[in-house]
Amino acid sequence: MPEEGLAEAFGVTEAARAKINLALHVTGQRADGYHLLDMLVTFADCGDRLGFLPAQADAFTLSGRFGETLAGDGGTNLVLRARDLLREAVGVLAFPVHIHLEKNLPVASGIGGGSADAAATLRGLMRLWGMSLPVETVAGLALKLGADVPMCFESRPLIARGIGEKIEAVPDLPAFAMVLANPLKGVSTPEVFRRLATKNNPALNLAADLAGTAGWLAAIGAARNDLEPPARELVPEISAISAMLHAEGALLTRMSGSGATCFGIFSNIAAAQQAAAALHDARPDWYFQATETVSGGM
Fold first, then answer.
1. Which residues form the GHMP kinase N-terminal domain (predicted)?
2. What is the rounded distance in angstroms from the CA atom of residue 103 to the CA atom of residue 230?
């Protein structure tokens, strides 16, 4: 279903923006096994979209390039889990709803697709059901759905610490033109963490006052994604795709999250679009998307 069709068919729509880990530092591990992280996160203009409509009975439909991947997912789908969790919290106000997910992002690709969908479901259903909940309540519901869901609910530049629940806005982060690239080969997040050589790495330490895009690019370049080396061991295509982005003129390349999506930052959107087109011509079986990220001032 095209985006304009989604807006026409459903009374309420929500964007589920791709989450980009500009930096990801693994700083420790809790006794319960969860890893402690410092992350600089931004969100892209591209992503999935969800539509919400009152219905006689709950319904869930799919479209988009990667919609078939989720077909038959049943109760494990984060959209349905978010619907059910919010319904438990609000009770009789939660009338039946038809939810449509336009799945444009690769599944399990390190850019928060499922978490962004869950967060958009919370936002969309709160609008459709005409309710507002305390910030603390919504944050608690989001965290129950997954460590990335609270930041995806915000969908703005931020620093996330702990397991992802300690969020601090970054209003000075500029927008970036970038290409998202994924070889459409799965990478196991638990296996990436298992292969991580050091679990107690230096924390993210950004300067208090970074000057413009150039200053931020330098700061991001000096940061890391600690999960990238083990992910490259598991999926050699990550190294290849990063080299391809660099060859097309990316100012900075890095893997996002636990992979396998990489991003390349370009000087402007025209350069990003040209690079994405060239990369698609070279590997039409892979995923390439030119986009811009949101700025801290939105």
1. 77-153
2. 28
Catalytic residues: 19, 148
Is 267 part of any known ligand binding site?
no
Ordered by start, the domain boundaries in the chain are 3-169, 177-292
What per-residue confidence (pLDDT) applies to 75?
Answer: 47
**Residues 41, 22: contact at Cβ < 8 Å?**
yes
Virtual CA dihedral for 245, 248, 253, 255, nearest 10 degrees? -10
Query: Which CATH number is associated with domain 3-169?
Result: 3.30.230.10
CATH number, domain 177-292, options 3.20.20.190, 3.30.70.20, 2.60.40.10, 3.30.70.890: 3.30.70.890
147 is in an annotated binding site: no
Give me the pLDDT at residue 7, please: 59
The tens digit of pLDDT for each residue in 47-80 reads: 999 999 999 999 999 999 998 887 766 545 899 9
User: How far is the CA of 297 from the CAs of 64, 155, 170, 222, in angstroms?
Assistant: 30, 12, 9, 23
What parts of the chain have a pLDDT lower than 70?
1-5, 7-8, 72-76, 208, 298
Residue 115 assigned as binding residue: yes
Strands, E assignment, the chain: 12-29, 35-54, 59-63, 97-102, 158-162, 166-169, 177-182, 252-255, 262-266, 287-292
**Residue 166 has what pLDDT?**
93
pLDDT value of residue 260: 94
The amino acid at residue 292 is E
Distance CA 157, CA 82 (A): 23
How many angstroms separate the CA atoms of 1 and 250, rounded? 32
167 labelled as ligand-binding? no
Secondary structure (3-state) at 163: coil
- Tell me the DSSP string of 171-229: TTPPP-EEEEEE-S----HHHHHHH-S-SSPPPP---SS--HHHHHHHHHHHS-BTTHH
